[in-house]
Amino acid sequence: MVGMVGTGGYGYLYGDVWKLITPWDFDGNGCGLDKYPTKDYPYLYWPSIDATFLAEADPKFDVKSLNKLLAYSYCVKKCPSGDPTEPIVCKKVSFI
What we know:
The protein has 96 residues and is of the alpha+beta class. The protein contains four helices and three strands.
């Protein structure tokens, strides 16, 4: 029990707790984090998911399968309202 408390305290003091609850887009940008170009885009949005991929997905969902599924994620300024005429403002960037 003491080891768990010590490890948790060390992680809290020297780690970045916000990285645990931050949504991440496919390029590895933390939505809303100051360190990334997506700092003004706090929400994660999946505009489309490939239905063929979902139908053929391995039930185990290995890492490669999950990466393909997340390939459609973007950081956005606000959640879509459902109005098809309203544009969705997103920041799609890559460090590569």
